[in-house]
Amino acid sequence: MTKLIFKNTYSPLSSEQIVAKEKANMKKKRFEHCVRVSETARKLAKLNGYDEEKAALAGFVHDYAKQVPVEEYRKVIKEQDFDPDLLNWNRAIWHGIVGIFFIERDLKIRDPEILTAVRRHTTGDTKMTTLDKIIFVADFIEPGRDFPGVEEARKVAYASLDEGVGYELQHTLEFLIENKNKVYPRTLEAYNVWGIK
Ligand SMILES: [Fe+2]
Ligand SMILES: [Fe+2]
């Protein structure tokens, strides 16, 4: 695996400490996905004139809380005054929106731009910053992804970050509907902003 390099100026913890905590919080496969998202985020940042170190760190931590136990999520949603409607959803939704609680608590990252990008990385949103888009798209096109259409997604995203977001939202909605899965309303709202021509 490529050596993970990001200059961390966003947490009192060292980069090595962040890497160690993340490694301990998830399975190896997911950890490797996070490394690839970090590298892809760096690439997208470079192409779009964004801070590469910040994008690499945000990409690395985006799934930090994906394997936090369901019961712990339910407890945090109730105790930390998250929208109670979140209790009707699942970890796929929680690990972004509620995941930032664990990133702040464990990794001591408080930078609002990084936290917002993590918060929006699964659902997308009607308003998205450059970093939000970078993390959203990097998660979708990292080299380990192999769904039908991923090559097209990469081509679109490397040519235009905004169109990459639109492509991803369309693909995600199609997938959810085909599989008769519930659609998080914000994802639909995001599609109405980024997905249409
Ligand atoms: Fe995720
Ligand atoms: Fe991910």
What's the short version?
This protein is mainly α. It is built from 11 helices and no strands. The structure holds fe (ii) ion (FE2) (2 copies).
Category from helices, strands and their pairing: mainly alpha
H/I helix tally: 11
The proportion of strand residues reads under 5%
- What count of domains describes the coordinates? 1
Quick one: overall form?
globular
- Report the major sheet: none
Can you tell me the CATH superfamily? Hypothetical protein af1432
Write down how many β-strands occur, each being a DSSP E stretch of 2 or more residues.
0
Mean pLDDT: 96
CATH class: Mainly Alpha
Sequence of secondary-structure elements? HHHHHHHHHHH
Description:
This protein is 63% helix and 0% strand. It has 11 helices and no strands. It has 197 residues and is mainly alpha-helical. Helix 7 packs across helix 8 and helix 8 crosses helix 10. Bound molecules: fe (ii) ion (2 copies). One fe (ii) ion (FE2) binds next to loops.
Helix-strand blueprint:
Blueprint: H1 15-24, H2 28-47, H3 52-61, H4 70-79, H5 91-97, H6 99-107, H7 112-119, H8 130-141, H9 150-159, H10 161-178, H11 185-194
Bound molecules: fe (ii) ion (2 copies).
List keywords for this structure.
197 residues, mainly alpha, Hypothetical protein af1432, 63% helix, 0% strand, globular, binds fe (ii) ion
